[in-house]
């Protein structure tokens, strides 16, 4: 069975077990890129992690966050499993995978682009 179908079944079961309330537990998908499997946002844009972040804390603000927009989480978002919520300075919420905050890259023009991988030696594709 393809991973995407299996993942959909697991999420549906989790929704039922949560009393029918749909939580945004997995805000991302896995997609094939020219650099292998990568986590992508709802629009198919590649997600990245930043080496200067510590688990559960973003170090990317100001110009950094302009170039590397954080993957925003809604106020009512609740993580589970490998997906958690990081509270940024100022109170905004951001999705994280295995404790690492997730970002997109402004220079990726279309789904599947991976131009942010390796930037300054500290930005890397978020891998499942």
UniProtKB/TrEMBL annotation:
Keyword Signal: yes
Pfam family, one: Lipoprotein_15
Alphabetical keyword list: Signal
Keyword Signal: yes
InterPro entries: Lipoprotein_repeat, UCP029720
Region forming the signal peptide: 1-24
Source taxon at top rank: Bacteria
BP GO terms, sorted: alkane catabolic process
Protein known as: ATP-binding protein
Organism expressing this protein natively: Oleomonas cavernae
């Amino acid at each position: 069975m393809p991973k995407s179908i299996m993942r959909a079944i697991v999420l549906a079961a989790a929704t039922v077990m949560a009393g029918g309330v749909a939580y945004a537990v997995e805000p991302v998908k896995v997609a094939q890129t020219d650099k292998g499997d990568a986590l992508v946002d709802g629009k198919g844009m590649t997600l990245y992690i930043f080496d200067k972040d510590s688990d559960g804390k973003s170090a990317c603000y100001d110009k950094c966050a302009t170039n590397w927009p954080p993957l925003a989480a809604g106020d009512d978002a609740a993580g589970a499993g490998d997906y958690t919520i990081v509270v940024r300075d100022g109170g905004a919420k951001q999705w994280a995978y295995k404790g690492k905050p997730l970002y997109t890259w402004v220079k990726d023009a279309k789904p599947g682009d991976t131009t942010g991988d390796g930037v300054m030696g500290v930005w890397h594709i978020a891998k499942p």
